[in-house]
Amino acid sequence: QPRIMAVVNQKGGVGKTTTAVNLATALAACGKKVLIIDLDPQGNASTGLGLEAAQRETGAYEVLIDGASLKDATQPTIVPNMWIVPTTPDLAGAEIELIDLDRREYRLKDALAADPLLYDFVLIDCPPSLSLLTLNAMVAADCVLVPLQCEFYALEGLSQLIKTVERVRQNLNPVLEIQGVVLTMYDKRSSLNEQVAADVRAYFGDKVYETAIPRNVRIAEAPSYGKPALLYDIRCAGSQAYIHLASELLRREQGQ
Amino acid sequence: QPRIMAVVNQKGGVGKTTTAVNLATALAACGKKVLIIDLDPQGNASTGLGLEAAQRETGAYEVLIDGASLKDATQPTIVPNMWIVPTTPDLAGAEIELIDLDRREYRLKDALAADPLLYDFVLIDCPPSLSLLTLNAMVAADCVLVPLQCEFYALEGLSQLIKTVERVRQNLNPVLEIQGVVLTMYDKRSSLNEQVAADVRAYFGDKVYETAIPRNVRIAEAPSYGKPALLYDIRCAGSQAYIHLASELLRREQGQ
Ligand SMILES: Nc1ncnc2c1ncn2[C@@H]1O[C@H](COP(=O)(O)OP(=O)(O)OP(=O)(O)O)[C@@H](O)[C@H]1O
Ligand SMILES: Nc1ncnc2c1ncn2[C@@H]1O[C@H](COP(=O)(O)OP(=O)(O)OP(=O)(O)O)[C@@H](O)[C@H]1O
Ligand SMILES: [Mg+2]
Ligand SMILES: [Mg+2]
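Above: the input entities. Below: the structure tokens describing the complete assembly.
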């Protein structure tokens, strides 16, 4: 059975998509079979992996609302060992449509349970909110990975996030835990980043990954070429950090 | 009657809150009476203006769901000429609660219409989504101000935003228009920023403000002191840019 991780933070622009896409690529480069599910109506993960609009006919919306099978909604990516369930245009309306559906929080979990999954990891990229799409990810997942930008507003939302994880664990998914916190766009010279990072480590202890992802323009350039940073420029500091993050994650998983 | 502007972009972390807070402060510094409405459950605008949790008893949730009057939900801020309707803790659940309410998209518009408003400007800070909270802002507003980070993922979401504005104008609010686009966290030395900015100006023409807001660490530091950048460090490049933006906006409004 694969390890299913929801990449969650309701604070916007903290590097959820960038982490989902590049961590998945680094895990695939280590020989792991990885599925990435794009649950964000913006479809940034689908774009970051080079999917044209025409390639997004069956995806997350069809799985959640129409009951399409995961197999039908999955397609290979430009990265070997990596597959994707893309965002489809209707996903923007899914939040409202899910409200009246049966088992509305379990739709993704049920879809993942229906097919024998031949992956080692499933990463779910979430939108910047704690609404029904993100809840579906948290119910389907074994754990949550939290990308965190070391700035004040990003710190503020953490208590809401922890409360939501707690609520989901008590009512909907008893195994859910925060597997780790990844510091993103981290600039060692910035005293603000240092201060916030110290607060985060004091709060989360060793759940915070040693590997911090530096701010690196090559990471921001890669999506315009439809590639993860690791394919765009494997030697840049950003790609190297995601490679280190993947090996740290694998060590952590084996130690479990 | 005040000019009501919704600060909207479903892409996360592009500077919506920072623009709402600092532009409102700069307008207040010009002697305009400004109300800021925090419609984001994260409550970053409330924090950025120094409101403690205890000061947030009546706010956006009570207005939208309980029908509290705007007057009851409004309080002064540390900035002269500026008032706020803060986020209250229950706002996180408002998206789902609004679904079954009568006139669910008009709740904010009705609340603004009920009281004679003694402001020159009302700025509404929105969450990073195009859901019912943001729709309430777009229905209540005269126009939309779009903060935009000049990066590829942020560019991608623009067509969804334009379609939503179009749909709201046709079905819910016939006056709604995009008043302007503000380039945020702009680094003149970054070729990525330059390229994306060129695309944005080609698409939006003179709706794009001349004033671009530079990336400036003092802007990111200010919220941890509970102050807008203009009160934290008026001389920094970020504060100066928001002051220029306010005067450019006033010129544009007078020219209307
Ligand atoms: N380490 C980094 N260095 C430089 N730029 C980065 C880095 N990580 C992410 N970015 C850029 O910052 C922006 C925000 O990142 P991203 O879109 O991944 O965040 P997100 O949390 O998924 O946003 P949203 O909340 O909208 O889903 C993007 O333009 C991305 O390219
Ligand atoms: N010009 C700037 N220079 C440096 N940092 C900035 C600038 N503008 C915003 N920031 C910082 O970038 C982060 C994102 O900005 P902000 O929270 O205002 O965006 P947002 O669009 O409101 O995010 P969300 O989508 O979560 O509501 C914050 O930590 C903020 O302090
Ligand atoms: Mg994203
Ligand atoms: Mg905000």
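Note for the figure: Residues 134 and 166 of chain A are 14 Å apart (CA to CA).
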